[in-house]
Structure formats: structure tokens, C-alpha cells
Write a structure and sequence with these properties.
The protein is an all-alpha fold. It contains five helices and no strands. About 15% of the residues are buried.
Length: about 150
Amino acid sequence: MLSGRDGVHPFIDAAEPADFAGRQRAFHRVDAEEQFVAAGDRAILISATFGAAFFEESLFRGVLYNALRKYLGGPAGAIVAAFIFAQMHGLPSQLFALFVLGLVLTWLYQKTDCLLAPIAAHSLFNTANLLLLHFQDRLNQWFDELNRFLHLA
């Protein structure tokens, strides 16, 4: 039976006791789905921040830069590795920024002689970008409100 008292759908008519139980079951189902999505979001966050940073730094600084440094020297190897790093991301609008990031990460690796420093920096970079993407709408609203406030003052 799809209708409750007076032909109203049971989930809409709050007066019926069965409605509360039905809505409660529906709420728990949605809550479980949201928790599943949240767990998926956490897995994406961890893999995009730490996993990608570990893999990319191992590849670009640990393998590629070390090989290029042997054949081209340190500065040329750093430039070529940073360029390949930037190209690999496939974002033409961010090519220069990623190239500079590649140079900075290579410099960190060269200074510390350890992949942990560029992995940590790369993880922080990825985390900051993901947080900016996640909060983009809220940040836009905040900047709009700030802009309106500054124009009123």
C-alpha cells in the first residue's frame, strides 16, 4: 500500500507511527551510503596525496633524475626531469607551475639526498590542491561576501 491516512504518502505524513520507522530505516540506509562514499573519498584522498607523491617521486627523482644526472649533469638532468614531470600531468594551463614544482622537488631531493623530503612536499602540494577543490564553492562564496563588504565599507 503506497498511501497512508487520507491518501498521503507514508513518508510525508508524520502523524502515522509507521512513518517514523520507515523514515528512520530510509535515513539509516542513506547514512550508510554516505559513510561508504566518505570512506571512498578518504581512500581517494590518501591515494592522491600520499600514494601519487610516493610513486611520482620514486619515478621522477629516484629513477629519472638520477639517470639523467649521470648522462647530462645535475642542472640539465633537473630541467629535463622537471619538464617530463610537468608534461606527464597533462595540464597545459599548469605546465609552467608544475615545471617549477618539479625543479623545487628536485632541489629538495638534491639538498637532502633523500626522497622523503620531496615526497612530503609533493604530498602537501597535492593535499592543498585537493582541499582547495573540495572547498572551492565555499571559498568563492567567502570571497564574494568579502568583496561585497569591501565595496560597502
